[in-house]
Specification:
about 0% strand, two-stranded antiparallel ribbon, Endonuclease III, domain 1
Amino acid sequence: MTITDSLDLLERLLRLDLDVTARDPWWWPESGSFAMVVGAILTQQTRYQKVEASLANLRSHGEITPERLAGLEEAALARAIRPSGFYRTKAARLRLFAEALLADFGDFGRFQREVDRDWLLARKGVGRETADAMLCYGCRREAMVVDAYTERLLRGFGLTFGGYDEIQSWLLDGLAAPRPLRELMGEMPVARVHALYHGLIVEYAKRHSRGREVDVTPLCVS
């Protein structure tokens, strides 16, 4: 069971009944919003259902914005995000993130346009996966997210890599030729292709995982 490259994998995923736009056109709920950025931090080491409960609690204090988060007492912020676990640590990190965003960009709109990966990685608690998720889903920029599901799915095809960067490079290399990608995805912006590709991988792996192994058999049916 082999695949040619990441474009081949994308084409196989698209053949399946995986509705990744049911909740959001970009897959991740509330894409293009500061709430998504907050959710990317909250979802570390927990399930997204817990994140949704935390976001609902935060909304009891008003709209989720950098200004409101920075102005919220840390104890109140921690109570609101308690369902997401590690709530004291995450509250401190969210507060620092919101304050840095306002100090360096002034507002979320400018942050979306101007932030780069290096700035995100300099924030406490933001690693490569979280940074790329923020860029892709929060800012709707070209960034390919790699997570544990990605690594497990590729391992199911016998593909092994040296870490995050190698997996990301493999995914991007297969999508690098504009014409084949356009033939498959039409005029869809590359940033949204990246978003939906990651969503397809996650939704597929959730359905076909046993422990840490992903069954790739459905992707090998011609």
